[in-house]
Amino acid sequence: MGFIIYFALIVLIPIWAQVKVKSAYTKYSRVASSSHMRGAEVARRILDSNGLYNVEVVETRGRLTDHYDPRSKTVRLSSENYHGHSVAAVAIAAHEVGHAIQDQQDYAALRIRHALVPVANIGSNFSWVLIMIGIFAQLSGMLLLGIIFMAAAVLFQLVTLPVEFNASNRAMDQVVSLGIIRNEEERETKKVLNAAALTYVAAAAVAVLELVRLVLIYTGMQRED
After folding, report:
1. Residues ≥6 apart with Cβ < 8 Å to 220
2. CB of 60 closer than 8 Å to CB of 93
3. Which residues span the membrane (predicted)?
4. pTM for this one?
5. What value, to the nearest 5°, has the Cα angle with vertex 183 and ends 179 and 184?
């Protein structure tokens, strides 16, 4: 019974977060912002007001594929948000510029996350191979090595949380101070940003739950030895 509850949690938590994001985004992508600025214009306005003239704003394919690329100093906005002038487009564009501002100001959590990327990639790719070998072959040492690799990936997920929340806070400060949104739009913009943040919270929660489960399996194997 406990395993069924656990399995339900790790499956349902991400699904619930995705539903919340898509629901909020769909709803507020139909609500035009009072400034009628396109997402690309919002991004450019915030970047220029912070002296980030060297950061480009470009269109990218896909839906909700928006991100900031620190290597090329580029804010990439999905077509819907690049050309759209909705509250959702404003929120997403401002959030990605929030990451550019973090990069400019050498935000500590962002630097830590960047440093963890290679380790997290290795952990994500190889941890489960080691874990499965360790569990099925009853090799506690192999399982422990897999747990260590997985812990690196989990750490990356946890460090991502303050980075994303901070970017959203910066986004709100910018769009309000520059008059890009007004009055009721503040609440609507926060709803979009909060919904987006849920995906990171859900991912981190699932990763921590899985890590704890594996640690319990490892300690059980140690007791048997």
Report:
1. none
2. no
3. 115-136, 143-163, 197-219
4. 0.87
5. 130
| Cβ 74 vs Cβ 47: under 8 Å | no
CA–CA dist 225, 154 (Å, integer): 28
Residue 185, CA atoms < 13 Å, CB-side half-sphere: 22
Location of structure tokens 């030895």: 225
| Helical spans, DSSP H, in 62-183 | 79-83, 87-104, 108-136, 140-177
Predicted confidence (pLDDT) per residue in 82-115, tens digit: 999 999 999 999 999 999 999 999 999 999 998 9
Q: What share of the chain is helix, strand, coil (3-state, %, to 5)?
A: 75, 5, 20
Average model confidence (pLDDT) across the chain:
90
Measured between alpha carbons, how far is 101 from 59 in angstroms, rounded to an integer? 19
Catalytic residues: 96
How far is it between the farthest Cα atoms of the chain?
Answer: 67
Residue 27 structure tokens: 């709803």
Sign of the dihedral through C-alpha 162, 167, 170, 176:
negative
Residue 96: Cβ-neighbour burial (10 angstroms; 0-12, 13-18, 19+): buried
Pick out the chain residues at pLDDT < 50.
none
